[in-house]
Amino acid sequence: MDSSPSFWAWYGEATKTAIGFFWKSGWAFVLGYTISAMIQSFVPKARLTRYMGDGGAGSVGLSTIFGAVSSSCSFAALAASRSLVAKGAHFVAAVAFMFASTNLIIELGILILIFLGPQYLAAEIVGGLVLIAISSLLIRWTYPQEWLEAAREKVEREAPEMEEDFDWRERIQSRKGWHLVGTSFVDEWKMVWEEILIGFTIAGFVAVLVPQWFWEALFLTNFQATLPAWLIALENAMVAPFVAAATFIGSMGNIPLATVLASNGVLFAGIMGFIYSDLMVPPLVATNAKYYGWRVALYIAGIMYVSIVATALILNGSFALIGWVPEGAREIAALTQFAIDYTFWMNVASVAVVGAQLYLRWQHRRMHAGGGHDHGSDSVSVKRLVVYGFIAVLLGGIVAWALTGGVA
Q1: Is residue 113 exposed (0-12), middle (13-18) or buried (19+ Cβ within 10 Å)?
Q2: Percent of the chain at pLDDT exceeding 70
């Protein structure tokens, strides 16, 4: 009699793994977005744009800092970058902002630390700076003046007004300022929850259902004895952005899947190339096309691809030189366990924080008109249908796990 697990057992196990990813990182999202909401509410953005008008090191450095303390939603990063261009920021500074606001933010760092460990976190920070430096140089060297001037004119005609300047000292001491924190927190979640749900669900099912031989074939990890290490690293770095693009997942949702890749032997260069490629998914390229036109959107995507591959190879070589290349990743089964441990108590505390943020937003909406970010409204209806499908899949998987107990 066949004693192998049934389809329903595998289905239940995949769902349990996906929900385990949510469980492990829930508090990290709440902490990260709380800090992000405070920065969004108390840092006067309009004042900074006057220093971003050239493509020099000072402008790029300021854009990097500005991006690192800004929103982590990929769509919001693109919208904010467009606003910077409309206010006179140089395109070099705008691209630096895009990379920093999706790769150097606090919540992403916490997530990488939880799922991949401190070596990957160090690589993410160092590599993020290298990525920005390389992309800045590439844009300066290849600057298509006519294309970018036409794009700037388009943005200036179409972009909404960015919030004007304010006194952060007065705002941080005011009731309105803290109401804005709650509103920003909820608005951030409204922008990213679909992307996170899709990304974590895909990661859970991929972790359980996709066999290791598939990743070995795609990333040549079973050829390490016959091919030069540098060639495999190059192939991993070049293929990883296309894998990231195929997932349609943004910056926060792709960390569990990066963990799956690492646990299946994908090289360090491939993992970092995958993580950095969140801005190259098709919906985001299409959003840039809506803002700047297809020529500039594809130019930016090309700059990003070359910069990502170069950065992944530089990280791979430099970390190998100092003997700090991560070997594999944390076990998926250990990451997705449900237990009364620090994760449990941090999640309990995060529920209280969420309640406080909802109350602040409720007070703000009671006294003021609500608002939100522009984050790709053209594709919201299709994306929402996909999300409903994923929710149905998870609900079905919970039933399957309850009936079968998953894969033993």
Answers
A1: middle
A2: 86
